[in-house]
């Protein structure tokens, strides 16, 4: 950590931005390994993810304090102020992404000796690929401060939600087919939900980039994220046709 | 809204603190009604909760901007700075409590025409009572800036987790008994998880109060919150003895 080196205001700003980029890389890596640990039932990797999340928590706390001290000392206005406030918001989103990854890793222990159906595992892998792609793109947009790219990224959250909805249905159907699947599927359900929420945080970051660059809120209202809150799968659907919405 | 009236620094601080208290009351009320809507299958109340959450989002955004402008303009140090930073953190927690309440309300639609077993409903009511009590106490501790009380509140999070863990087991067992319960129980499962997370946010607020008052972090590490991540209920347990942990 290069504390005490920071001297000028400009350097303080650069430090904060660089730290956000580092945290972004850590968060991506953490989520990737958490899903890998889940898919491969890799307990050692799951343990490593749980440990590493603490680093992200510490980074967020440090960035938070640093950013606030910079605001207090330097009284930045307009774009500079938005840069720092934006960094606080983004680091908060990244820290929560880390928590969600950790929560997936914790579930690996519960799921690891239950056979998981290939189709479900593929679904969760696909969901996490989309979400990690979203996260990667939003971090690139942050580096470039590209608010138009940020807008396009937000729109792509729809695709993640559609995949999550289909996994949600599949999981319920699978639980209905055989009660022995219920415990494992419940943890997969929470894991899928966590990945979907990581997508929401990527969307938050996109909105923050827009705010940093333009000083305005990205409008109109973001699309509804989780549509599964109203899904009911009738038990008759289990083992037959795809489930229908109530 | 009394914008433009705020004149002195002291008034700005008071405005921020007052607004946090208002948001706290709104968040409490929102969660209470969300759980009531769930328990009574009251769709109109659920709709009202979903609408009202937008007010909390707007209040958080306004407080955030106001607090940051105050930091930039007034360069507060030490306790004053912690007051404002603390307010930003607490309003973030309150906004997320509102989101979790809204998410419960959205699930009322999916669950409302499925018969819910009394025991489960009682469990969720009990969980929400404990959590609302925790939230109420932490808001009182904020008003009093009582960091010792905040410490005691954090310790009580254990009780909420224990009740959540028992509801989690019950829900899995109930799903195994009859596949027709699976859809509704999944939504109850997410609702219970949301209430447990509201308890975590109350804990965050307790930690922030400690920070405002003392300038230090509350130590040692907060207790592990969600222990259900490792729970596996064997299907044989359904309908018979209480489920055992894997």
From TrEMBL, chains A, B:
Pfam families in the record: PhoU (PF01895)
Function: Plays a role in the regulation of phosphate uptake.
Protein name per Swiss-Prot or TrEMBL: Phosphate-specific transport system accessory protein PhoU
Organism this protein belongs to: Consotaella salsifontis
Subcellular location: Cytoplasm
Stretches assigned to the PhoU domain: 20-108, 124-208
Signal peptide span: none
Renumbered residue ranges of the record's region Disordered: 218-246
Biased composition, class Low complexity, residue ranges: 234-246
């Amino acid at each position: 950590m290069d504390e005490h080196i920071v001297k000028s205001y400009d350097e303080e700003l650069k430090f904060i931005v660089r730290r956000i980029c580092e945290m972004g890389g850590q968060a991506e890596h953490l989520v990737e390994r958490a899903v890998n640990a889940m898919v491969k039932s890799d307990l050692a990797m799951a343990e490593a993810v749980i440990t590493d999340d603490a680093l992200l928590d510490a980074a967020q706390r440090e960035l938070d304090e640093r950013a606030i001290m910079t605001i207090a000392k330097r009284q930045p206005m307009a774009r500079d102020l938005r840069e720092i406030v934006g960094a606080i918001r983004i680091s908060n989103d990244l820290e929560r992404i880390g928590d969600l990854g950790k929560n997936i890793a914790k579930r690996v222990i519960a799921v690891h000796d239950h056979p998981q159906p290939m189709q479900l595992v593929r679904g969760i892998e696909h969901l996490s690929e989309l979400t990690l792609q979203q996260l990667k793109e939003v971090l690139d947009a942050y580096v470039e401060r590209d608010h138009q790219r940020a807008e396009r990224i937000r729109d792509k959250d729809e695709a993640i939600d559609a995949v999550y909805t289909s996994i949600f249905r599949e999981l319920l159907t699978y639980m209905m087919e055989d009660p022995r699947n219920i415990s494992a599927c419940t943890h997969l359900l929470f894991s899928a939900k966590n990945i979907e929420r990581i997508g929401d945080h990527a969307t938050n970051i996109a909105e923050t980039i827009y705010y940093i660059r333009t000083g305005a809120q990205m409008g109109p209202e973001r699309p509804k994220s989780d549509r599964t809150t109203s899904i009911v799968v009738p038990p008759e659907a289990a083992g037959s046709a795809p489930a229908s919405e109530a």
